[in-house]
Amino acid sequence: MMLTPEKMSLIRLNKYISECGVASRRKADELISEGRVSVNGKIVTKLGTKIDPEKDKVKIDGELVRWEKKVYYLLNKPKGVITSTKDEKNRTTVTELIKTNLKIFPVGRLDYNTTGVLLLTNDGEFANFLTHPRNKIEREYLVTLDKQLSKEDREKLLRGIIVNGKKGKFVSVNYTNKQSPKRVKVITVEGRNHFVKNMFAALGYTVKNLERSRFGKFKITGLKRGEYKKLDPKEIKNIMNKNRGKKA
User: Which positions are catalytic?
Assistant: First the structure.
């Protein structure tokens, strides 16, 4: 949403940072708490601080934060690409696959060799909407295992198992090929790192291939590996408004 003069009264600092596309509100709060944010030259660490976007100058690590036009991209992530904005080992990052002059970042993470749906944007509010646990946005994955998934283990994955000290479960687990029970499709609302791989590993399985086929309403239909398309901001706004309507 573009900040217009009539709407530019005092707003929370974390919201402004989010609307500038720098980070989600949660991440913005972290930056503030760490003393990395200044307003008019003074470091601000108090959460809930409000600013006047028309008059106040906000900087993160000394760099001025400016509002930018919001953009949204859907990428069919290929293998061998890092889900990050930069990599210390100089490996290709997902942002390098997108042709844009704007500073964008990936929404969530996909492992180095995991393929499929990945969204990139400069809209922190949208990123937070997709990744925040309270919204329970579904992620759908196509999984190839090293051995056949037993019916007993399938039931365990649906009931829930402990992964890294916390209970996790899949919303659904379905065999995609009756002749090859090594291939399954799972749906989860969990966004923890390596969650799918860790769930199967807890039961003694190794994930040989992993593709995210859907993230919320977004699919990679028609996109080849490494290809992407620009999404209509109106579509994004409608999806977010519908989700808010369900909660009302």
Answer: 111
